[in-house]
């Protein structure tokens, strides 16, 4: 729950921290993150999340994916304390949500690094971001990636859109970016001509497909068959790899067709220490 900062709320928070105890049962970050993301954000107060950990988790990939799924409405600052903190976890979640990461080791003091991140978090943000399109009749724009709800100082945002409909190369379109900064409204517009590139799989199309695939893979319905089908279609049409497709190398010199079903291969990946079993990843070309 988000509450207003007062001396009373500060004292209550300090009291709760002093009552916390470690049960030495391992580091659990995913469930607390999910609970935080389910709580509503107060209007005009973008979420700034500070994560402190002195260990590692067994589901680093899932934690980073959860942070990335919610990266459009918050920023995450991560701090690794001591020699046992997971570098991949700390760097991964801060990178996924556009924050910064710090490591406190040896006799280093935590306060300067935390205050540095806090100062960065208190900078004003760009908010209420929207795109307005002016297109010829019969055309429409479809966003391939979710626009951010906030843009923090020093960060950038890239939004891809697909224009559908009959293209008239003699016409022009216009897109306007509207946003609010320090309680003042701004609008920036740019006009563009309709010109079809005579290139197979232009780079900008592949980048747009990559953004769409990432959006689908990290979405709430990523396990549904309909979404999986769309991921595979987008991947094979654009030539951009996904979690459900793979590139297959074919030796054309033999001039012989590839025959037989796909073969499963178990590829060992680094597992956790302390006697944990080695994880195996299934690799099967799907497309």
Automatic annotation (TrEMBL):
Its domain of life?
A: Eukaryota
**Domain VWFA, chain residue ranges per copy:** 4-103
Query: PANTHER family from the entry?
Result: VON WILLEBRAND FACTOR A DOMAIN-CONTAINING PROTEIN 5A
The protein depicted here goes by the name: VWFA domain-containing protein
